[in-house]
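User: Show me a protein chain along with its predicted structure.
Assistant: Here is one chain, sequence first, then structure tokens.
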Amino acid sequence: MVSKDTARTIVGIIGNVVSFGLFASPIPTFKKIYQDKTVAAFKPDPYLATVLSCCLWVIYGLPVVHPDSTLVVTINGIGLAMELIYVTVFFVYSDWTKRRKILIALACIILFVGVMAGITFGAFHSHHDRSMFMGILCVVFNAIMYVSPLTVMQRVIRTRSVKYMPFTLSLANLLNAIIWLIYALLKIDAYIVIPNALGTISGVLQIVLFVLFYHSTPKEEEATDMAQEVQLSGV
């Protein structure tokens, strides 16, 4: 009989693999940017948002904050490194107006994360209190990030077209949310349960919309490159 801790570790490892795939999903976009030597109409916003998300989850998973969360730290640490590479490529091939915005955004992220880390380690002195403070931050930020898929779903309903909602990405996000939800439920962690429960609901709705509006989407639209902006999340 597999113990609960062993099962949780196995699920967490699977979650790391799936999340890594999501973090790697923008590679074709950045390959295009590199080949064209320009960012064109692409925006850095989702990648900068994911940098902040990964930073918060890395702090949350530290042993001095929330013990037994090594797998949360590993995938978000890897995700952070990948996102910083994406932002660097974006910076290199942007004009100075966009570069200035990226630098300001990164400065704000560093300042915000630094302040939150200072509060976590300076104002709170127990695992429970530190976990609660960082956990609430992570839940709130992830909830805000789910506004993006809701906007896309609204557009799908309005246009009766799944052009801007790729099926493979929606399915991967759903799978990722389900795996991390199971991980959190095996050793109740409300701060991982809540965002991934929301992610599971969002993913199911996206799949339902895809099934409903797939046949009403013109084939020439279906073939359009849709992965311009992708919400990524390690947990």
